[in-house]
Amino acid sequence: MSAFSLRPLPVGALGTALIAIGSFGAGATRNRGGVLHALGLDFFAYGHGAGLANTLLWAGIVLLIAAWVLLGRRVLSAASPSASAARLDEVRRSLIAWVIPLIFAAPILSRDVYSYLMQGAMLRDGFDPYTQGAAINPGPMLLEVSHDWRNTTTPYGPLHLWLGEGITRLVGDNITVGIILYKLLSIAGFSAIVWAIPRLARAFSAPPATALWIGAANPVTILHLVGGMHNESIMVGLVSLGLVCAARHRYVGAIILIAVAVALKATAAFALPFVVWMALRHYTTAQTPVLKRCAAFLGLGTAGALLTLGVVAAITWASRSSWGWLAEISGNSKVINPLALPSLLAGVATDFLLLFDASLTFNVPLGFLRQVSTALMGLGLVAAWWFFRSTASQAVRGIAVAYCVAFALNSVTLPWYYASLLSLVAVTPVPRWVLPWATAASIVVTLAFTGSGNHQLYNPLWMLASVMIAWALTSWLFRSTAPTTPSPAPAASLPGPDARAGRR
């Protein structure tokens, strides 16, 4: 086998180049107009042309996964500090090479970017996306919005609408230019994630190269945040920057950045209560009297809440939006896939229940299970916040656990949601089993979604093959690196900003 085929950087770059080419016929292609139409290449989006495009896209995805695993083997086998530093540079170079071809790609894995443009155009044209669906504002952009969402309100915050309004004011109804601007925003958010992850890892004495490999070089992160242009990119980027500020004891800046992220998407709010623990840990010690610690906690919590509210209110006012998004943040019940535990359990239970009562169709157990999972999610989030409070590094780990609880038990879960979790999963020392599970799950999720945005999660043969591929690659990767994979210190003695500050 040639040296080229074993080097992660060129293998991954070839993969994303194929994805970029295939995206114009196998991605979230335009219903009207677009680049292919302008070039007279419409045939690439249907028939044999679409078949070729899908072949290129899937070949690219497979190559990107292979490159990521090869890179992981090099990263995880780095034993010395100098080798680890070299691997961090290698991950960064690989990321740049892998992302560059996607700059020129059409939207892939989701049509959401068209909805983003439509929602911005609605605010621009005087409509309220929190009470009205896209169909209220006919035009070229509406033709590109998925039929499922044309009469659906948006769950995103005022910053999302403000960005969309600004873009649509600049481009008018030019969808192609609008997509290019959203691509630039996505890359900006992704760049913030790439910048922040190694700094968080160093702050909490975790291997920076490993954290960047699993958190940013991950195919799920690259394909869905850069290729899919989801607003998760900006949100996760802002939260990551905020946590870097918190790790450096700049708590006002941390809360402001995370509050801005909340104004984009409410998911960012999961991080805020843990920043309070980080601040409390910095300003008090174990020897501080209980009453003073309680007063400090109440003061920090109240100040953080007021600052968050002020930032979101300012963005809401400046964007001429409303607080209607608060009623929409529970997600849209139209989305059904087994990434959300209620949907998975409902699918399993329905066939059994129908043996006893023909009226107990899928929506019956689904409605019940969504209510139960919502209650369990609330309890799980509180438990994560309480149990991960002892140190700053524990608090950051608690944010990752909170995301995991929320995404598993939420009524609606989509693959790009996991970018929030992946960006934090290895910025603190973690048990040895965490990385293999995160790696295998990432491979399965990457293979589960097609270029157009449809998923194969209910295709048993496809998912069985995906699981087997993930198991084989993960087993090979961690078996070859097991002797040098770092083991975490006990939670009570995890080093980090607390230790360097005298465990204040």
TrEMBL record:
<feature type="transmembrane region" description="Helical">
    <location>
        <begin position="400"/>
        <end position="418"/>
    </location>
</feature>
<keyword id="KW-0472">Membrane</keyword>
<protein>
    <recommendedName>
        <fullName>Alpha-(1-&gt;6)-mannopyranosyltransferase A</fullName>
    </recommendedName>
</protein>
<feature type="transmembrane region" description="Helical">
    <location>
        <begin position="52"/>
        <end position="71"/>
    </location>
</feature>
<feature type="transmembrane region" description="Helical">
    <location>
        <begin position="209"/>
        <end position="227"/>
    </location>
</feature>
<feature type="transmembrane region" description="Helical">
    <location>
        <begin position="430"/>
        <end position="449"/>
    </location>
</feature>
<feature type="region of interest" description="Disordered">
    <location>
        <begin position="485"/>
        <end position="504"/>
    </location>
</feature>
<dbReference type="InterPro" id="IPR017822">
    <property type="entry name" value="MptA-like"/>
</dbReference>
<dbReference type="GO" id="GO:0016020">
    <property type="term" value="C:membrane"/>
</dbReference>
<feature type="transmembrane region" description="Helical">
    <location>
        <begin position="256"/>
        <end position="280"/>
    </location>
</feature>
<keyword id="KW-0812">Transmembrane</keyword>
<feature type="transmembrane region" description="Helical">
    <location>
        <begin position="295"/>
        <end position="318"/>
    </location>
</feature>
<comment type="similarity">
    <text>Belongs to the MptA/B family.</text>
</comment>
<keyword id="KW-1133">Transmembrane helix</keyword>
<dbReference type="InterPro" id="IPR049829">
    <property type="entry name" value="MptA/B-like"/>
</dbReference>
<dbReference type="Pfam" id="PF26314">
    <property type="entry name" value="MptA_B_family"/>
</dbReference>
<keyword id="KW-0328">Glycosyltransferase</keyword>
<feature type="transmembrane region" description="Helical">
    <location>
        <begin position="91"/>
        <end position="109"/>
    </location>
</feature>
<dbReference type="GO" id="GO:0016757">
    <property type="term" value="F:glycosyltransferase activity"/>
</dbReference>
<feature type="transmembrane region" description="Helical">
    <location>
        <begin position="368"/>
        <end position="388"/>
    </location>
</feature>
<keyword id="KW-0808">Transferase</keyword>
<feature type="transmembrane region" description="Helical">
    <location>
        <begin position="175"/>
        <end position="197"/>
    </location>
</feature>
<feature type="transmembrane region" description="Helical">
    <location>
        <begin position="461"/>
        <end position="478"/>
    </location>
</feature>
